[in-house]
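Problem 12. The chain below contains 377 residues. Write out its predicted structure in token notation.
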Amino acid sequence: MNIVLKVLKTDITASLKVCEKGLRYDLTVPFARFVVQHQSEIAFPFKRYQVQPVWRADRPQKGRYREFYQCDVDAIGSRSLMYEAELVQIVESVFNKLGINVVLKINNRKILFGIAEAIGHADKMIDITVAIDKLDKIGMENVEAELRERGIEQDAIEKLKPILLLEGTTTAKLATLKEVLATSETGLKGVAEMEELMGLIDTYGTELEVELDLSLARGLNYYTGAIFEVKAKDYQIGSICGGGRYDDLTGIFGLPDTSGVGISFGADRIYDVMLGLGLFPEEAQMTTKVLFINFGGEERACAMGLLKALRAEGVSSDIYPEAAKMKKQMEYANKRAIPYVVIVGENERTEGVATVKNMVVGEQVKVPFAELASYLK
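Solution.
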């Protein structure tokens, strides 16, 4: 017993140590490393897309996973805000095709620094952004409480609240920010970048709802400029897409001052939204189009020949593995959402025709063996 306890204690102690290695957290940092490693082979500006799984040490719950897929789009090697505007076009195109009604929230980390500076806490920008980024989730009262816990006094919080709760058009919000951030050089630069970006978005033209959200901070501190977050308007879940501008991420790998911007689509959350809103077409659930009923004997041999011919023509087909009762085989087709069942019994085999039953509408027709592939295609 003592030996067992000693082993358990050793295992627990080992598990509490900070590990020097971990699973891939996101795709942006590895991308920065790749750029540095292959800088002599890359023509800048350099664009890329990447789809891979990433991992988080989260408690699994709705919309939050320990393993999930990200679909990233990045451009690196230029500070031009044209690339931010192109990302907006990509967001609009993707979600239009998927049929998801979304809002794109946008902010700028320089504006956030300017706000922290304006309320007298430039040194606590990270604490402020971590708290205000939860405004949508926990409400202003709880955000205030967290700010106080992080050492922000009430006078500063009172200065911050009206900024976070600004309403009106983007133009009106930016005009107010110019006054509020008049003493912050960095904040005014963020406002200027936002004005330029909104102008580029207007020039491109978009029907996407774009909202300047001053509480948007994004959790990753390598962002230095524009930041984005996309939310579904008709389904309750966290952000389904997000990203931003990073000016010196490659610097940690030895290539300073190489600016990039990117956005990441959360494939699993997007799937959850589409499933919840019933946006998947019925055929997306269908993996097999045709099921042959298995009668055994010569009928099975005949069906197997027809099955091979259908597969050669690209028709996704299968045959029930056993000569079970017809009812059981039909129930299997229904559970698998297979739209067509092909029956080749003794009569069909003799006549050279197959009985094809449409499982969706319940109708059935006789089709000559030679025409079966063209009929089902």
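Discussion. DSSP finds 14 helices and twelve strands in the chain. Students who got a different answer should revisit the alignment rule from Section 12.3.
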